[in-house]
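Thread amino acids onto this structure.
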């Protein structure tokens, strides 16, 4: 009987840890998606100075969060996101809207893929 209780406690702890990790990653990624969309708004208005500043802040925030995300996730998208964010800043500084939007879409799709791959769905489990 004691083994069953210990097993149940360990199961609950594992489930709680997994749920916490999923929620933290999802919330973090949703905030980055919101930031990218707000930067897109600056680019639409041709306010490249503020867009470049926000891109710099976003890139710095991503590099700080990257350590945590790399610790809990193993994804090929993580490097792709870092590169896309750096390119977004570069294109915002140069005023190249077409290339900026290309990198912005790449970053958003990669972030969404990371977030979606963490949800408890059958295709993610199998």
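Threaded sequence (126 positions):
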């Amino acid at each position: 009987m004691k083994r069953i209780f210990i097993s149940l406690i360990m199961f609950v702890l594992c489930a709680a840890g997994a749920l916490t990790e999923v929620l933290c990653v999802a919330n973090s990624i949703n905030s980055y998606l919101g930031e990218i969309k707000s930067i897109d708004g600056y680019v639409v208005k041709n306010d490249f100075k503020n867009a470049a500043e926000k891109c710099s802040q976003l890139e710095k925030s991503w590099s700080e969060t990257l350590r945590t995300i790399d610790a809990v996730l193993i994804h090929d998208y993580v490097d792709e996101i870092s590169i896309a964010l750096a390119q977004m800043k570069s294109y915002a500084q140069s005023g190249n809207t077409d290339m900026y939007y290309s990198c912005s879409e790449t970053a958003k799709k990669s972030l969404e893929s990371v977030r979606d791959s963490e949800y408890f769905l059958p295709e993610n489990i199998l």
